[in-house]
Amino acid sequence: MLATARTFTLDGLAARAVRVEVDVHRGLPGFAIVGLPDAAVREARERVRAALVNCGFEFPLRRIVVNLAPANLRKVGPGMDLAIAAALLSASGQLRWDAIERVALVGELALDGSVRAVNGALAIAEAAREGGAEAVVVPAENGPEAALAEGVAVIPLGAVGELPALASGDWKPPRPRPLPLRLEAAPGTPDLADLRGQPHLRHAMEIAAAGGHSLLMIGPPGAGKSLAASRLPSILPPLAATEALQVARIASACGRLGALPGGRPFRAPHHTISPAGLIGGGSPPRPGEATLAHRGVLFLDELCEFRRDALEALRAPLETGEVSIARATGGRSLPCHFMLVAASNPCPCGRGEADPDCNCAPVAVQRYQGRLSGALADRIDILAAVRQPSAAEIGGGPGESSAAVRERVTAARSRQEERLGSGRCNAEMTPAEARECQVSPEAAGLLAELYSRHRLSGRAHDRVLRLAQTVVDLAGAETIGREQMAQALQLRRRDRD
Ligand SMILES: [Zn+2]
Question: Which chain residues have CB less than 5 Å from ligand 1, an ion?
Answer without folding.
Answer: 347, 349, 351, 358, 360
